[in-house]
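Example 3.2
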Amino acid sequence: MVALITGATGGIGREFVRQILMDEDVSEVWAVARNEAKLKELKDEYGEKIIPVVADLSKSSGLFSVKQKVASSRKKIKYLINNAGVAAFKRSDEFSIDEISDTIDVNCKAAVTLIQMCLPHMEDEGRILNVSSASSFQPTPYINLYSSTKVFLRYYSRALNEELKDKGIKVTAVCPGWVDTEMLQNDKDGEKIHFPGLTTAENVVTKALKDSSRGKEMSVCTGYAKFLHVYGKLMPNSLVMKQWMKGISKYIN
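Structure, written as tokens:
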């Protein structure tokens, strides 16, 4: 069986590769990423089970490359991990049109499209894990575009899990808080940024795979992220945003 993992060369995606290779049912990991050199490094590190798929998921041509790979194989897909994502910390009016398109296309369109491609090749006990974010639990100015796409992915995942129950396919929205990866900006103008509840990719992936195996529709890794989930549901949005702005104020002025 196959695991298809997007954004596979770094951070959470690379950790998914490492842990899923331990699953004896998985004979191949189709590692999807834009950077061919990093995919080669991944294959050199983990061996012949890694099948590199070079694709820019913000482009139709990239999605077509993945579609060709899926369609040409007779192997069943056990895991689809939609991990690829685009994020930026800035005001919404500072985004270019291309940046907006790329963010929505990778974070939303690509994930849904890949699910549609892979579903005919999945069967009972197949698993889809969509990496959303704890930022989807509340309105978050200055990462507004990113977190809004993650709201979409979280709701889509939870509803899809319900729709696919009759097929035995489990869908889990993975909602990490701050994760110590290369995607995280560690300082602003020379000042170290404090990230409450910071955790590792290993912790996120271990919890996600465990929750997926149990059929949970959402995986939340840390106590801090769980607090944000409850806090975001109980408190008025105006208060939640006020607290968020207080926390980030020294990094935006």
